[in-house]
Write a structure and sequence with these properties.
Length: about 700
Amino acid sequence: MKDEQTQGAVTHRRTDTRLTYGDLLSEVRAQRERDLEAGHPGRKTNVNAVLNTTRSLTAFLEVVGLKEADPVGSELLDPDLFEKSVDRLEGAPDTVRRRRSELTKHVRPTAVSLARARDGEFKNETFGERLDRLRVKSGLSKYALSKAITSAGKNIDNKLIENWISDKKIPDPKMNERLEKIASVLGVDFSYLIEPLPLYRSKTLSKKIDLPKSIRRRVSQHLPKDFETRSNLEKEEILQWVSDNILSTPKEILDDGDVKPGITGTDLAFYVFSRDVDTRSPTSSDEFILELNEVQNFKTVKLLPYGKLRNTAWNPVSAERADYHLRAFVGSIHSMGMPGERATICLCLFPKIIDMFIDWKVARRKGYTLNINDPLLIFESLLHPKTGFISQSPHLRNRVRPIPGFISYDEASRVISDEEGAWEEACQRARAHIIARIKEVKRVAEKGRDPFEALLPALNFENPVQVYSRIIDEVRRRTPGCRYAKSRAEAMRSLMMIRIGLLTGLRSKNLRELLFTQGKQQRSWKELKRLKRGELSLHGDTFNIRIPREAFKNSTSRAVEDENTIVIPDHDQMYHEMEEYLSQRAVLLAGHDDPGTFFIKTASPRSSSAEYTRAGYYEAFRSTITTYGIFNPYTGQGAIEGLRPHGPHSVRHILATTMVKLTGGFSEAAALLMDTEEMVRDNYARFLPGERHARAQGILLHSLGGK
């Protein structure tokens, strides 16, 4: 058993020198004959001496389990592995001693000399393979290499060199000075040594910048390698660019301090109450979670208990969205100072709390926007006198308590009073106030954001898809080699997010929930309808997506068929890259159960599931855009100058605008997005009246010219 383990250790890693053992045997024989003839011309024992040398090499090959056709590798060239190999030589003590001597004095020096002479470009090497090959050629052990650098005044851990050689880690730019010394010791150019290092963002890179720890890593990956050596003025300029073009809001880094107490100016403030304990957001109390579950059950259960009424039921998407808005509403009040244990949906019964929430949103967004009304509309339905959950749940009065600064004793007493009709009156009063506020907000609300603004550098061209596809080329260019399996898998996932989004035009939800079947029976339409999901599968030699009407957001629209099949064309290496991603899924799963979805997140030991959440898929796509899509003038990386961060839904804007510009109408764009022409015209396509007029004028001029 020990011998097997040793053999595995010896032959586990090979350094290809493009020199076979057959070549080496011939060269050793010829070299030994020349040396013996030069020292002792015509001696009869010269033949026996040559045979001793060649037999020693043959015995060595038997020990390491190699043949003459195999390339000479680390088992002979590496001093450490060579010693392990010769220790396994068998036979009489004198024979073993003689063979060890022949191998050490004659065979290995000849092999090292030939390896150096035959050294090529080795273009497909990883950094670890190149470092190991150069170290072996220099005749240095790993410890000797570490010691040589340390003696030169550049201290480096021997374990770090081991990790580099095994490709467990790669050096970051902070190690460049030490790498230069390593190149000097090995006798090669610094640029040649670091050439195999992959061109992709280093997630472990963290520059010395005075920023909160929560965003330091996000910022670091967008900074140039020489950031720390630049002047303070240049650093400030770079940080300002990253803030304006990469992060959510400019206030995220360079906050001028003009923020009201209890109000944050950043999108990175985790104010939304969480159902999860293991999160940076404030965790909901058990009582509040119970209330949310009651609301979910009331609005999603197929049959209500006798005596209860509701107007409509929520589908899973609506239920998830409403749950988020309720947690966000209560979380915003908590961020103003309300104790977390007092969290309850009954806060909506107090007009003062409603107005505090509106003021908080206005201060945070710097104006009135329609998203202020999102939780208010939910509360309005829950307070309906006949069909509302809250109005039909007087037991919730037990959750109402006075809260200093938020709910006075008198206000709480009016709601929790035992008098007949007190609860119904409180619900009606609150609902009337909320309806009034919804109308007022709608009247004064400004457009919070232009959905086309982030995409203008692509949309302004005649063919936006062609411009947007530059991101695909950028991902391909920066995808690391197979040795960096995890990073390569993440890059291939980013590539698939962009490519499948552009080919199908599906919404984020449909892509996130897209099932995948490989090597087994496809799901039936009946099962897909029950799951309300689409499925990607290989049908013959063609990949296609089968997606039922029930899976679409606009499932009641006439633009959606009962059973929809989208064929994925094998265009521009699509199938090859898709299969490459599928082969890397196991790396992303990292031992977790496969959720069965095509897109999976990078699972960690803390992950409960490898399936994407709505926010998780959005962030993964957004990260793809900030990493590969946005051109960074300070690093020279990125595909499109002026592009801004955006989510997967924006791909539909790219497709709709392209189709409208190319065809001049909205019908083809509507067919591609599986939506109505009215929806495309009002929400998706950026085809301004002036552009339409110019196109019509061009057609007219072309017609006149033809005559």
